[in-house]
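User: Okay, second chain of the day. Same drill as before: sequence in, structure tokens out.
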Amino acid sequence: MPIYNKLVRDRIPEIIEKSGKQFTSSILNDEQYIEELKNKGFEELEEYTYAANDTVALEELADVLEIIHALAAHHGSTFEEIEEIRKEKVKKRGGFQEKIFLHEVEDD
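Assistant: Same drill. Structure tokens below.
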């Protein structure tokens, strides 16, 4: 039996059950949950990094977005609030559309 030991989407146990397979799972406490959300975020970003094409890349970005939604909720916020913070940062500091790569800055 493969061992996963990772956070999974809410309907995964139901899907496994419908396939007729046996599994074990548990419910995380808040501290474990936030740690596993962080781990899952790194996992999804890594999968995005190795995406073979645009379709797979977009699927992985959707997974990253789901992690962001869950993290926002855990911190008592919403994705919409994070989006507003993002927009303010773009106004103040810009985005990443111009592809600027900073090499060095002279020290005083």
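The CA atoms of residues 100 and 106 lie 17 Å apart.

User: Thanks, on to the next one.
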